[in-house]
Amino acid sequence: MLALLSSPVRRWVLTALLVPAVALVLRKIAQFLQRRNDGTPTKSSRGLMKASSGLRRLSGKKSEDADADKASEDKRLSA
Known about the structure:
Elements: H1 7-36, H2 43-59, H3 64-78
Helix pairs in contact: 1-2
């Protein structure tokens, strides 16, 4: 069915639906790898997190880590 859609519509569908789902899967795999390694990031988990955050940036969604980092930054600046 995607072959029948026009190119801009297909791009929008991929960006709006598929890219955030792939980013979520990559983030979950990276978190699993970190938990398996006693919470310490591995090369693989860092790479997966970077790929996930890049895809989330592409899709226009904010990551949970960015919100947590901003909250800790605000707390640090107010102290």
